[in-house]
């Protein structure tokens, strides 16, 4: 067993194996380390290289951050060896098997915690069995939710009260019960494993997550109190426990130096707020027909744009002569793009997004309004927060929750939403609102800000728990 320095907390972080979960967890670990804690991140070899580069600067400044490898037992569920990130799954069946494999990580976590005996485990929500493993060693567990308070409240209220069972069709709207604001949604927009309760792996996993929240020491939320105060106050009441907001976490991190990326040089030639950024994250994907609709809608809007596409450019999904006509006006990037620098660039005036919470926070903090196009996960709830509560976005028109592939949206709807977010008085008012929210979000992580105060309160709690457990020295 390790010996810890006098008074120093040692916290283990166990993120889900996906870019959207790994990145905020890295920044959370850096944040804990900046407060004097020792941080250890448990992950697969797929992310080890990325993590090593990311935390190198933090270690140079004196932060204590380590990495421990864990192996996903993919062969036990019928997946090929080496599938150690959810991004490597290309079908719904492969994704379900990957989640099942992650459910078999308990023995490895048991061995790690038994050897190192940290003061706290911060586990991802997709590991609802982790609190039971940690409890065997008297280690308190914090569940890390990488989404908004609004989405957490919506999921909990729908799970507890089942209003979706009282409507006659998937398209009939219903109000989310026991909610601070009157918000309507349809069965089409909530997860299949919630509305059907079909006994599938994901349905069982969702129920386990809800049950795990009741066993944990508390919940960490990557959000800002000032963005959603009613829901930050409401969620602990629904939970019946503690929750701390510690976001926006990406503001604590250091993203890659992207000064040489050609798209940023291209943006330098454009007027302020004149370019639309289009990106749907690292998991969502569209077929050729939908990509054709996006291209046609963008061209019809007359807007300048940067469009990030995972597929290689093919004649099947681009209108004939599209790139020639868009030369100087539109830029297609295949694969990866430096999203944060793009959003923060003065030329960027709007963002077509899948409403992943990381992207949503990045857009808010950059002061950029959004066209919302949710796909799955909790993204339809985030869309309601963006459009109905914060009033900093317009809906593209996606109506159905789908795994991996987005709901089909026609070119006319794309053109209409894009034009609306980029032009006119309504767009100007929205841009003003989101810039005010950006100031509030950035202030939250400054000394005396709401997220800093919540983090300090969490550290006081953990130190008290450590003393209560008699683990001030080992």
In the CATH hierarchy, the architecture of the largest domain is: 3-Layer(aba) Sandwich
| Cα-to-Cα separation, first versus last residue | 8 Å
Q: Write down the domain tally.
A: 2
Helix content: 40-55%
Can you tell me the CATH topology of the largest domain?
Rossmann fold
Mean pLDDT: 88
CATH uppermost class of the largest domain: Alpha Beta
Structure explained in plain terms:
The protein has helices spanning about 20-35, 45-60, 90-100, 105-115, 130-135, 150-160, 190-195, 200-215, 230-240, 260-270, 290-300, 320-325, 340-345, 355-365, 380-390, 410-420, 425-445, 450-470; strands at about 10-15, 40-45, 65-70, 120-125, 140-145, 175, 185, 220, 245, 275-280, 305-310, 330-335, 350-355, 370, 395. It is an alpha/beta fold. It has two domains: about 10-70 and about 105-245 and about 445-470, 3-Layer(aba) Sandwich (Rossmann fold); about 260-440, Glycogen Phosphorylase B (Rossmann fold, 3-Layer(aba) Sandwich), CATH 3.40.50. The strands form three sheets. The chain has a seven-stranded parallel beta sheet, sandwiched between helices. The protein has a six-stranded parallel beta sheet with strand order 12-11-10-13-14-15, sandwiched between helices. The protein has a two-stranded antiparallel sheet with strand order 6-7. Helix 1 (about 20-35) packs parallel to helix 2 and helix 6 packs across helix 9. The longest helix is centred in the last third of the chain and has 21 residues, at about 425-445. The chain is globular. Mean pLDDT is about 90; it is low at about 1-5.
